Amino acid sequence: MMTLTARHKLLNRLAGAMLGLLLLSLVVGLLVPVYTDEVAWRFQISRFLQDGIDRATGETCGLNTLAMPAYFMLPVRLFSATATAFLSDPLAVRVAGIACAILAVIAMLGLVRQREPASERRAVIEILVLALLGTGVLPFLLVWSRPDQAIWLAMLASLWIAFAPRAARETGEPRARIAAITLLALIAFSYHMKGVFYLPVFVLAVLASGRGALHYRLRGVALLVILACTWSAYRYWSDRFACPDDPVLAAKLEQQNVMMLLRNGGWRALPGAVPTLLSNMWPTPYIRNTMPATGYMSYWLPATPVPLPLMALWRAMIWFCWYLTAAIAAALVFLAARDRFPQRWMLAAALVLAGCASAWAMLQYNKNAYESSVYLPVLILALVFLWAAPARYRAWLGSPVLTIAALSAISQVLVAGSYAAPLWAAGRGGGYVAGQPYSLSAFAYPRARILAAGAKCGIVLHPGLKRVLIDDLTYFAYAQSSTPMHRLGVLSDWNGSAGDPMAWMRRHGSPGAVLACAYLPPSLRERAIATGDVCCVSTR
C-alpha cells in the first residue's frame, strides 16, 4: 500500500506535470489567429492619446459614438494608448494574451496555495484547476487578448490580497491593502461593462480584508468610492452600448444583450424577458464553446481535423469532465453543510463568484466563444473556494479529480496534435488567413505592403492623416493616424444606417480606404487598386 507521504509526493508531481502541459497548450495558442474582436476592442478603448476620446466601430449611433471616458478610467486609457503607439502589431496582441493567460493560471494556483498548506488536498485542488483549464479548446480561448483578461486578473489580485494569511494581514499596512483592492476594482470597471457586474467580488474583497475599528472606517470609505465609480461606469458603458440615433443598429444590439432590450424598451419589457433570463443562466453553452467541432463561431478556428467518431468521443470526454466536476461541487456543498459551514468566508467567496458569473450569463442572448474564457475560469475559482468550505479533506475526492486530469491530458494532446501544424501552415505567411475571414495571422505582419497599397491612392501615413477606412489587418499600419474608421461600421452587417460607403466616406472627410479587397462591394471594387489581397480606394 502506498504511504501517505508517497501519495502526496506523487500528487505533487502530477500537479507539476499538469501545469507544464497547460503552459505548453497556452504557448501553442501563439499559433491561433488574432480574432476581429481582439482588434475591435483595441480600436475602441486604446486610442486616447491618438484621438482624445473613446471610439466605436460604427459611427451612426449618436453622441455616444465618440465618448469621453470617466476620469478614473483615464490611467487605463493612457496605458492602452501607449501600448498601441509602441506595440502596434498582431504578434504583440497574441503575446499579450498568452502572458495574461499564464499570469492568471499562476494567480489561481497562488490562491490555492494561499488557502491550503502543503498537503494532499492542495495537490488535488491544483490538479483539478489545471485539468479543467486544459479541456477542449479552452486553452486557445484563454489567450484571446480582450478586456476580459484585465478584469479577471483584477479579480484574482483582489481576492489574493483579501484572503492573505492572517499573519500577513495583521502585520501589513491596511491602507495599502484596501487601496489596492479599490484601485483594482476601478481598473476592472474601466475595461468593460462586465467589470461592473463583478462588483460583488470587489466588495467581498474589501469586506474580507481585515478587522478592527480602523479597518471598518477604511473599508467604508473604499466601498463608497467603489460604489460611486460603479454607477459612473454603468452609465458610461450602458450609454456606449446604446444606439439612440440608429434604430437598425439598436435592433441588432437588442438581440445580443438583455440589458439593451430593457434600456431601449423600458423596464416594461422585463416580464417578457424573465424566461429568457432564467434559461440563459445554464452553463452548457459555455462548455459547448470549448468543444472540438466541425465549425466554430465566425470561423475563429478551422474545423477540427479529426474523424467524426474520434471527435464524438473527444466531446463526450469533455462533457464527462464537467459533469464529474458538478458532482464534486455538489459533494463539497453537502460536506460543508454537514460540517455546519466552518469556513463561511470561503463559502461566501464561492457563492459570490458563481453568482456573478451567472448574472452576466443571464443577460447574454448569444454566448460568444470568448465569453467562456472568463465564465469557466470564474466557476473553477468558485470551486477552489468551495473546496475549502468543509472542515476536513476526504481522500475519496481525489479519485474523480484524477479521472478528470487523465481526460484533460488526452484532450490537450489531441488539441496540439490536431491544430499546431495546420494553424502554423495557415498563418506563417502573415496577413489574412484563408478560410477564417474574421481573423488575421499573428506572424509576419505586412506593414510595408499595406502602406505601399495605400500610397497608390494617395493615402500616405503622416502626422496629419485622418479618417482612413481600415479593417483589422490594416488598422495596425495606420494606428497612429487620427480617428480612423473601422470597416465594421461601414462595410458589414453592423453598419446600421450608414448607407452608401463612398458617400459616407466623403461626408466624413475620409481620404479613402485601405483594406482587404474581399470586403469591398462591387461599387467600390471597380474603383479599387489592388496590391495582392489589399486594396485601396480613393474618395477623390
TrEMBL record:
Keywords: Membrane, Transmembrane, Transmembrane helix. It comes from Sphingomonas hylomeconis. The chain crosses the membrane at residues 91-112, 124-144, 150-168, 221-237, 316-337, 344-363, 369-389, 401-421. This is Glycosyltransferase RgtA/B/C/D-like domain-containing protein. The keyword Protein biosynthesis does not apply.
